[in-house]
């Protein structure tokens, strides 16, 4: 029976061969990784050389954008912003009296089907601001003061003659006719909805929550017209809120007088007389207060300095944009040639 004898020298040679193969494989992987990294790395000096080689392209494109920015900035008309600072008018009189009556005769009044309310005079400035920005109020404001033509057809302002400049392709001043091009369902004359959208872009309202101060701004080509519109706007919102409360108070007085004729309880008659008295006081305050809801702290003035456009900023940003774009074009051409 023969017995195989393992050769230790052969085993050692096999192990050395495997180790060498593994080392060779790792070296190949490392070389491949290094080569790929070298291909992916961007040499800053090489990029600077590429940019320097295309410096004339960069200068030309940047200069082109700078000139175009200058022409664009100069072509934009000046916009002036008129501002007014308001504060909520103090609520007085009738609301406090009604609250006192609610505490004293609330039970009896509820038996008669009358709601006296429990709160004091509410701050109506928030409601006034919401109404001021509403579509119905702005549309009626534009129609009431005939603002459609200057709002929708103007394109600038002549500072020497203090007159608006109108777009002759939109409105014919001599014949007082709208001649703009339109697509259905629109017409040559702008609709109330278009006028509302245009006016809303000119109007901005800011409210300081800590002080309750309200700032209303109107931006327009003409500083005189911006101030005029802003003054009319504040006046109209006060009058609108006044008419609303006046109508409500008069309706309450008429109702109370009608119901008083049917009251046979002396205590209830006292409640009704006091209610009529308080509503009459409210009516008096509504009619007497000049600035009913919003009180003017700083009235609107004709602005002397334009609000926009910022022409210097437009030129700087345009030049920077041209420089960035030109550098990208130069680098793109460089990498395309490098790939080829």
Question: TL;DR of this structure?
Answer:
This protein is of the alpha+beta class. It has eleven helices and eight strands. The strands form three sheets. The protein has a four-stranded antiparallel β-sheet with strand order 6-7-1-8. It has a two-stranded antiparallel sheet with strand order 2-3.
Give a topology summary:
Blueprint (H helix, E strand, L loop, with lengths): L7 H33 L3 H10 L1 H21 L4 E9 L5 H18 L13 H8 L2 H10 L3 H6 E5 L4 E4 L4 E2 L4 E2 L13 H11 E5 L6 E7 L2 H38 L5 H23 L5 E5 L12 H29 L1
Antiparallel strand pairs: 1-7, 1-8, 2-3, 4-5, 6-7
Helix pairs in contact: 3-11, 4-10, 6-8, 9-10
Characterise the protein shown here.
The chain has 340 residues and is α+β, with helices and mostly antiparallel strands. It folds into 2 domains: 46-76 and 309-340, no CATH class; 78-88 and 123-307, Bacterial polysaccharide co-polymerase-like. Helices cover 61% and strands 11% of the residues. It contains 11 helices and 8 strands. The chain has helices at 8-40, 44-53, 55-75, 94-111, 125-132, 135-144, 148-153, 192-202, 223-260, 266-288, 311-339; strands spanning 80-88, 154-158, 163-166, 171-172, 177-178, 203-207, 214-220, 294-298. Strands 6-7-1-8 form a 4-stranded antiparallel beta sheet. A two-stranded antiparallel sheet has the order 2-3. A hairpin with a 4-residue loop joins strand 2 (154-158) and strand 3. It starts with 7 loop residues before the first helix and ends with a helix. Mean pLDDT is 81; it is low at 1-6 and 117-122.
């Amino acid at each position: 029976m023969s017995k195989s004898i393992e050769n230790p020298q052969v085993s050692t040679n096999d192990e050395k061969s495997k180790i060498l193969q593994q080392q060779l494989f790792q070296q190949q992987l490392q070389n491949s990784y290094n080569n790929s990294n070298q291909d992916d790395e961007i040499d800053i000096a090489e990029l600077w050389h590429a940019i320097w080689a295309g410096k004339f392209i960069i200068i030309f494109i940047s200069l082109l954008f700078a000139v175009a920015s200058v022409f664009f900035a100069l072509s934009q008309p000046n916009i002036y912003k008129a501002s007014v600072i308001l504060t909520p008018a103090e609520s007085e009189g009738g609301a406090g009296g009604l609250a006192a009556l609610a505490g004293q005769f609330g039970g009896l009044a509820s038996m008669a089907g009358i709601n006296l309310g429990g709160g004091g005079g509410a701050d109506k400035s928030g409601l006034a601001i919401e109404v001021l920005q509403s579509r119905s109020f702005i549309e009626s404001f534009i129609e009431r003061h005939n603002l459609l033509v200057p709002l929708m057809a103007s394109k600038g302002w002549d500072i020497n003659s203090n007159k608006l400049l109108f777009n002759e392709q939109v409105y014919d001043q001599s014949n007082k006719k709208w001649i703009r091009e339109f697509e259905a369902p629109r017409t040559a004359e702008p609709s109330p909805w278009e006028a509302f959208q245009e006016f809303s872009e000119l109007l901005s309202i800011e409210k300081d929550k800590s002080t309750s101060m309200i700032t209303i701004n109107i931006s327009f080509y003409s500083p005189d017209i911006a101030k005029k519109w802003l003054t009319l706007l504040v006046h109209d919102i006060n009058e609108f809120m006044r008419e609303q409360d006046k109508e409500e108070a008069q309706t309450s007085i008429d109702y109370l007088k009608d119901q008083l004729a049917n009251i046979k309880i002396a205590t209830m008659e006292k409640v009704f007389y006091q209610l009529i008295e308080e509503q009459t006081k409210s009516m008096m305050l509504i009619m007497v207060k000049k600035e009913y809801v919003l009180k003017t702290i700083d009235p609107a003035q004709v602005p002397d300095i334009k609000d926009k456009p910022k022409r210097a900023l437009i030129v700087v940003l345009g030049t920077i944009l041209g420089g960035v774009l030109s550098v990208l074009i130069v680098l793109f051409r460089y990498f395309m040639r490098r790939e080829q």
